[in-house]
Write a structure and sequence with these properties.
Blueprint (H helix, E strand, L loop, with lengths): L1 H26 L3 E9 L5 E8 L6 H11 L4 E9 L5
Antiparallel strand pairs: 1-2, 1-3
């Protein structure tokens, strides 16, 4: 019984994540986001996470996890913009 419950929970989670990506792509296809993981000490960019439409669903969360893994010296800075239709 526990196996069925576990499979049901995992399947439901995958379904919800997939729906979030599809919905983001349909509702805001031109919405873009870029998050930089910055060193607090030097101000240099450690890593960049970016995407548009359905690719920007978990950009901030991914950048925050990356910054957390690099310790107290890292911080996250994000910006959003709307991409032109012609691009």
């Amino acid at each position: 019984m526990k196996t069925r419950t576990t499979i049901l929970v995992l399947s439901s989670s995958l379904y919800l994540v997939s729906c979030a990506n599809i919905a983001r792509g349909l509702v805001t296809p031109n919405q873009c986001k870029e998050c930089l993981v910055l060193s607090k000490a030097t101000g240099e960019t450690i890593s960049t996470f970016s995407g548009c439409g359905s690719s920007n669903v978990r950009i901030y969360e991914d950048a925050a996890v990356f910054a957390y893994e690099h310790g107290c010296d890292a911080t996250v800075s994000c910006r959003t913009w709307k991409q032109d239709e012609s691009e």
